[in-house]
């Protein structure tokens, strides 16, 4: 009977199970992710080599002129060393880590989740997935409010495969596309796109793409060649917050 149970466990029947319980699933960028991983023994004793947590997200990639959804690992943590779990036994492993600042916020079709896996030699590895709602931190929220105050509305937010000239450690970036609906930039710009590259909680690099509206034949020609787009890199810090609206307006006005 023991040998039969071992065979079944090797294909995942009657094997150990894993369940991750998050203390909080709605989090701000940079906040601590805390919880506990519960491992419950199956019908036989098993050797668990590792327990690992992977923070994952979805992004889109252009393949043959169509968009496909891909997955990327943002960060991975090992939370337990090798151990044995007896049949029916339950073990708990608490964990705590900071949500990486370059985690995308969960807006639009973007999904972020925590993948838990057990490494069991010569057996199907049990897994668990728990979705996280990621919200912008204070600095990102300030930028959103300033852009809105300048007359822009968020049209789309999407995680896309990153071009090599903007790629950092992740294979994707999250683009926020704003369109002017009022104020001085309405009629002058088609859109403004912003990508956040946070360095710390109080410091962030912004890549801003200003897309000017075509005017006349020369403007249409420039638009066809993407010559109407300007990329701007700026770094903002906590001490810039009180003048951010004036500074961004002046910057966008320079390239409008």
Can you characterise this structure?
The chain is an alpha+beta fold. It folds into two domains: 2-135, Immunoglobulin-like, CATH 2.60.40.640; 138-255, no CATH class. Helix content is 16%, strand content 50%. It is built from four helices and 15 strands. It has helices at 2-10, 138-149, 216-224, 244-255; strands at 17-22, 26-28, 32-40, 46-48, 50-63, 66-80, 83-85, 90-98, 112-119, 127-135, 152-161, 172-180, 189-200, 203-212, 229-237. The strands form four sheets. It has a five-stranded mixed β-sheet, with no helix packed on it. Strands 11-12-13-14-15 form a five-stranded antiparallel β-sheet, covered by helices on one side. It has a three-stranded antiparallel β-sheet with strand order 1-3-8, with no helix packed on it. The protein is elongated, with a radius of gyration of 24 Å. The model is unreliable at 1-14 and 214-228 (pLDDT under 50).
What keyword list fits this structure?
256 residues, alpha+beta, Immunoglobulin-like, 2 domains, five-stranded mixed beta sheet, five-stranded antiparallel beta sheet, 4 helices, 16% helix, elongated, Spore_0_M, Sporulation protein
Summarize the structure.
InterPro entries: Spore_0_M. With 256 residues, this protein is an alpha+beta fold.
Oligomer: single chain
Helix content: 10-25%
User: How far is the first residue's CA from the last residue's CA?
Assistant: 76 Å
The CATH top-level class label of the largest domain = Mainly Beta
CATH architecture of the largest domain: Sandwich
Outline: elongated
Which strand order spans the largest sheet, edge to edge or round the barrel? 2-10-9-5-6
Overall structural domain count: 2
Largest sheet: 5 strands, mixed
């Amino acid at each position: 009977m023991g040998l039969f149970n071992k065979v079944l466990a090797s294909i995942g029947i009657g094997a150990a199970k894993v369940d991750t319980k998050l203390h909080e699933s709605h989090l701000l960028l940079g906040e601590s992710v805390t919880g506990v991983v519960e491992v419950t023994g199956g019908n036989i004793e098993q050797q668990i080599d590792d327990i690992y947590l992977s923070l994952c997200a979805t992004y889109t990639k252009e393949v043959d002129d169509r968009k496909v959804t891909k997955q990327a690992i943002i960060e991975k943590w090992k939370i337990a060393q090798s151990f044995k779990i007896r049949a029916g036994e339950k073990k708990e492993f608490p964990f705590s880590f900071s949500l990486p600042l370059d985690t995308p916020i969960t807006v639009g079709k973007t999904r972020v989740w925590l993948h838990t896996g057990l490494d069991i030699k010569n057996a199907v590895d049990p897994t668990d997935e728990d979705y996280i709602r990621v919200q912008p931190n204070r600095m990102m929220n300030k930028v959103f409010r300033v852009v809105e105050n300048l007359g822009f509305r968020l049209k789309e937010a999407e995680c896309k495969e990153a071009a090599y000239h903007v790629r950092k450690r992740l294979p994707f970036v999250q683009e926020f596309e704003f369109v002017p609906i009022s104020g001085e930039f309405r009629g002058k710009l088609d859109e403004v796109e912003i990508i956040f590259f946070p360095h710390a909680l109080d410091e962030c690099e912004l890549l801003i793409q200003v897309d000017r509206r075509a005017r006349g034949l020369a403007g249409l020609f420039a638009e066809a060649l993407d010559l109407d787009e300007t990329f701007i890199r700026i770094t903002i810090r906590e001490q810039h917050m009180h003048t951010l609206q004036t500074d961004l307006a002046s910057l966008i006005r320079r390239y409008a």
